[in-house]
Write a structure and sequence with these properties.
Order of helices and strands: HHHH
Helix content: over 70%
Number of helices: 4
Strand content: under 5%
Mean pLDDT: 80
Largest sheet: none
Structural class: mainly alpha
Length: 125
């Protein structure tokens, strides 16, 4: 029963952290799309052809981000999953506050390590 309560406390704590992040990301996406639209419209007004716009923005009308973005997010998701996997045996003997602290600490540590790995993979010599 205590394990179930600890899990519920962890979900509540994660909800308190993730909710503002999701709202911020949604606002960021809307603003980004608006400015992308404005940039595209101005370029068309200045006489760029459809082929030139596709070259700049890709098929979806957004700037090309390429495979590096997929690599970065893949590393982040892998690192966060590993952090939860590693945290599970550590938190079995801790109180509710310790569970949240250890889990979040591991998530941020593994996420940071993933970004460092991404940098090391993609840096140019």
């Amino acid at each position: 029963m205590e394990q179930k309560q600890l899990a519920l406390d962890l979900v509540r704590q994660l909800g308190l952290i993730l909710t503002p992040l999701v709202i911020f990301y949604a606002i960021y996406g809307i603003v980004r799309e608006y400015y992308s639209y404005q940039t595209r419209r101005r370029l068309i007004e200045q006489g760029l052809t459809e082929g030139q716009l596709r070259e700049l923005f890709g098929k979806e009308g957004r700037p090309n981000e390429g495979a590096l973005s997929s690599l970065k997010w893949g590393l982040m998701v892998l690192a966060l999953g590993l952090s939860l996997f590693v945290a599970q045996p550590i938190v079995t003997n801790l109180s509710a506050g310790g569970v949240v602290s250890v889990t979040l600490g591991l998530m941020f540590s593994f996420g940071g390590a993933a970004l460092v790995a991404f940098y090391l993979i993609t840096r140019t010599k």
